């Protein structure tokens, strides 16, 4: 119930203060599971993603975030899933995410594991790659552009500014089941995911071309 109340208000808020634009909505599956992999530079990222995407998304958030009375409250009611700093080591969170996608619902994960201190892409961990292989769900690369300028890591307050979400084409990752998931193979998948996110980031803010959602 709270989700249905927050999302319309949030869309109005982000439209007025951040001129939110979403490009590539046609790349987001209308049904079935999906693992959305995005850059992470700001506290705004989980909220802007939930607000901007057409489907309810369960986002993986570090358990420390839930210590904030306000932010923790909203993330919890917007489909947040608690994870430790190293998501691959958090077996409970992994099982929860796999169960969510098995139900046919999308999940959002940040391959870097934490917010970037400078707005640039960081070296990814292998949690997203592991979930992609284990679930068999399509990976949806995504870039949030502008949220760092609005609310960087060391800032106490959010300020107005444009934010654009770019959604890339789905990609599937598969490894032979007999071998399991080797670290070097997962690392190669992680690098490919980050490369796709980097390409989307390089495209910059929205313009008048492409499919968008105002």
What's the short version?
The protein has 214 residues and is of the alpha/beta class. Helices cover 37% and strands 15% of the residues.
Structural commentary:
By secondary structure, the protein is α/β, with parallel strands linked by helices. The protein has a single domain, classed as 3-Layer(aba) Sandwich (Glycerol-3-phosphate (1)-acyltransferase). Helix content is 37%, strand content 15%. It contains 7 helices and 8 strands. It has helices at residues 2-18, 44-52, 69-77, 91-102, 127-135, 147-150, 183-202; strands at residues 21-23, 34-38, 58-62, 81-83, 106-109, 139-145, 164-167, 212-213. An 8-stranded mixed β-sheet has the order 4-3-5-2-6-7-1-8, sandwiched between helices. Helix 1 crosses helix 2. The longest helix is centred in the C-terminal third of the chain and has 20 residues, at 183-202. The chain is globular and about 50 Å long. The two termini are 24 Å apart.
Tag the structure with descriptive keywords.
single chain; 214 residues; alpha/beta; Glycerol-3-phosphate (1)-acyltransferase; eight-stranded mixed sheet; globular
What is this structure's SSE topology?
Blueprint: H1 2-18, E1 21-23, E2 34-38, H2 44-52, E3 58-62, H3 69-77, E4 81-83, H4 91-102, E5 106-109, H5 127-135, E6 139-145, H6 147-150, E7 164-167, H7 183-202, E8 212-213
Helix pairs in contact: 1-2, 5-7
